[in-house]
Amino acid sequence: MNKQSSRTSLFLIELVLSIFFFIVAASICMQLFVNTYFLSQETVETNQALLWSQNLAEPFLGHMGDSSFVKNLYSDVDCASELSSNPDSSILLCFDKDWNSIKTLSECKYLVYSIFYTDETFAYQDIYIAKYHESLSSMQSATEIAELLCEDNYKIYQLTIKKYIP
After folding, report:
1. Average pLDDT of the residues in 143-162
2. What mean pLDDT comes out for the span 139-144?
3. 89-94 long-range CB contacts below 8 Å, 24 or more apart?
4. pLDDT tens across 1-39, in order?
5. For the chain, what are the domain ranges?
6. For the range 86-95, what are the long-range contacts, defined as Cβ-Cβ under 8 Å and sequence gap of 24 or more?
7. pTM exceeding the 0.85 threshold for the entire prediction
8. Which of 4, 8, 39, 159 is 20 to 30 A off residue 56, Cα-Cα?
9. Strands (DSSP E) found in 12-137
10. What is the pLDDT of residues 110-137, one digit of tens each?
11. What are the E-state strand segments in the chain?
12. Can you tell me the distance from the alpha carbon of 129 to that of 111, in angstroms, rounded to the nearest whole number?
């Protein structure tokens, strides 16, 4: 009987160790899958941010820093009048969770905000791509909006363009 109980207890210990090893391996795999999902989401956000930065930068550079051309190009989806006190010098594009352009801030998940300014010889365009945050709706100046969008909690991408104007 001792041999039989010894075999049974040895088998149970082996079974418990196997189950423990399986649980540890499963938890490691689950962490990898979750981290991969979040990395994938971050990659999609970065790719879309780069795409929209390029979409705003190329017309600006191609038309010698003419901000009115860029404004007219995106006039049908520009939400700057909803948020900024100076909508003539900025563009605000709103996107839903799938990066489809929308016209209202209430359903906004991502923002693309562009500010235009000039000096004697250069035209500038600052482009900010960020996740939408409720505190943006209370801000009125372009500086306040840009400062909030530059915070690491919201910012996805930022680009400053400088175009020489002869």
Report:
1. 80
2. 63
3. 89/115, 89/116, 89/117, 89/142, 90/114, 90/115, 90/116, 90/142, 91/56, 93/52, 94/132
4. 466 667 778 888 999 999 999 999 999 999 999 999 999
5. 49-164
6. 86/141, 86/142, 89/115, 89/116, 89/117, 89/142, 90/114, 90/115, 90/116, 90/142, 91/56, 93/52, 94/132, 95/48
7. no
8. 39
9. 90-95, 101-102, 110-118, 122-131
10. 989 898 999 999 999 999 998 887 777 6
11. 90-95, 101-102, 110-118, 122-131, 155-164
12. 6
CA pseudo-torsion sign 21, 27, 31, 34: positive
Interatomic CA distance for residues 50 and 65, integer angstroms: 19
> Residue 76: its pLDDT value, please?
86
Tokens of 73: 């190009």
The pLDDT value recorded for residue 133 is 76
109: left (phi > 0), else alpha (psi -120 to 50), else beta?
A: alpha
